[in-house]
Amino acid sequence: MEVSFYLKRPKATEPTAIFARISYFSNQLKYYPSLKIHPNNWNKDTQKARQTLDGYGSFNQRLKDIVSDVEDILRDYQNNNDSRIPTTEELKELIDLRLKDTTPSKEKLTFMSFFQKVIDDSTKGLRLNLKSEKPITKGTTKNYTGTRNTLTDFITKTRKKVDFENINLDFYADFTTYLQQEKKSSLNTIGKHIKIIKTIMNEATDAEINTNTAFKSRRF
Question: Would the pTM count as exceeding 0.70?
Answer without folding.
Answer: no
